[in-house]
């Protein structure tokens, strides 16, 4: 049904929106994944020397001691979370803009369809019904179908990325 309503340009916008949502899901999963190693590192600073990845980063960047590495790791984690939140905000903005711009376009298209009808068509129709269709029904479609669909898809993609990240990090825990 949605494929019939959307124009080719709007379908392309949906693909771009899905790409933005995938980037958002990846950044959210990365933000979630960065918290656990940081907490583990704070609880046991010797992990810098025991974990091969942390030890590689510690040696590669030539930190003076484990405390400096933990501070740098914390700053990196904070930056990842800030970037993740910025990407999430951009994704929300893109979804909201897409939704309400389509609401406007659908209302305009419906109004154009009505205006292209002959005078005889309007003799059998009530003006309140026509205005309700242009104003309320398109808004109802937007709020009851398009917004929940976009939220379902974006949250589903986010769930897949977080589950994938959890499986990647530790299969036995999940």
Report on the architecture of this protein.
By secondary structure, this protein is an all-alpha fold. It has one domain (12-162). It has seven helices and no strands. The protein has helices spanning 2-5, 8-43, 47-50, 52-60, 66-115, 119-123, 127-169. Helix 2 runs parallel beside helix 7 and helix 5 (66-115) runs antiparallel to helix 7. The chain is rod-shaped and about 85 Å long. The two termini are 38 Å apart.
Summarize the entry for a quick read.
This protein has 7 helices and no strands.
Q: Helix- and strand-based class?
A: mainly alpha
Name the helix and strand elements from N-terminus to C-terminus, one letter apiece.
Answer: HHHHHHH
Content of β-strand: under 5%
Tell how many strands the DSSP assignment holds: 0
The parts where pLDDT drops under 50 for at least 5 residues are none
Mean pLDDT: 88
User: Can you tell me the number of structural domains?
Assistant: 1
Number of helices: 7
Q: What keyword list fits this structure?
A:
single chain, mainly alpha, 174 residues, 7 helices, 0% strand
Topology overview:
Layout: H1 2-5, H2 8-43, H3 47-50, H4 52-60, H5 66-115, H6 119-123, H7 127-169
Helix pairs in contact: 2-5, 2-7, 5-7
